[in-house]
């Protein structure tokens, strides 16, 4: 994640407005009770991250306030961020917290391969199905030793990400191949809505960087989408222009490319100074420069890319799946 994390933060914003924006962007497909549950808690959860050591950028004009970006589909600035490396900063803080806990064991170079459940056990004993399926742990493969280890647990949480690597262009890392969802499915957990994949409108179009994301925050800072003739085209597709919801912007780019027979669109950030770009978007600036693209003077070639799997393992509001004590967190849910 580059751009940041959304929460109705300022006094002139509200979680109710965040709900409204989400329902509009969801085009009638959202479950309102879930949207309200998440939006209402968002600020408290971000405050929890801050307490755990996450450093979100401060407002340059007021060091007591946080800098807030605006992104597509949002009617207000409510995106807290750390430069253009927000996900990395959150991971840094949480990993540091984990390392301070003497009762946490981290098993690196280890791949979970299957869940241990009542149904798994019953198939190998009596052959009778259990009354209700329950998780008891997992089998994991140690890459270094070549051994399969068994981990027993009262509670198992799957936090395994999505499945973006089934697409040529994706913002996801190579490990995002849907393994956690597959494990849950094999164990009998209910899975739904796997056809719903969010495409991020702007992934860098370059043969050496197939999963380099160009954050939506750039469009929130005035970035303009242009075709290869240099023409701004979003005005032909949506009145919200570059800040329409992601599905609309992604479809608009796709339609423009197909209509014109072009390979990519371009994001124009040349209205910002080099100093602003290096300060606000250091990772994107440096990454593009390494590939020969100076975003202070050149347009950024972009294409839509698979970004977020909206389907996954079905859970309740407490993140518990249809298998007892199996919780699913994040994109796998």
Summary keywords:
single chain, 333 residues, alpha+beta, 4-stranded antiparallel β-sheet, 3-stranded antiparallel β-sheet, 9 helices
Would you kindly provide a written description of the structure presented here, covering whatever features stand out?
By secondary structure, this protein is α+β, with helices and mostly antiparallel strands. 29% of the residues lie in helices and 21% in strands. The chain contains 9 helices and 16 strands. The protein has helices at residues 15-25, 32-51, 86-99, 118-123, 179-186, 216-220, 246-260, 274-280, 282-290, and strands spanning 5-6, 58-59, 62-66, 68-69, 79-80, 110-117, 135-142, 148-152, 156-158, 191-192, 197-204, 224-226, 265-268, 300-309, 312-313, 326-328. It has a 4-stranded antiparallel β-sheet, covered by helices on one side. A 3-stranded antiparallel β-sheet has the order 1-5-4, with helices on one face. It has a 3-stranded antiparallel β-sheet with strand order 6-7-8. β2 and β3 form a beta hairpin. The longest helix has 20 residues, at 32-51. The radius of gyration is 22 Å and the shape is globular. It starts with a strand and ends in a 5-residue tail after the last strand.
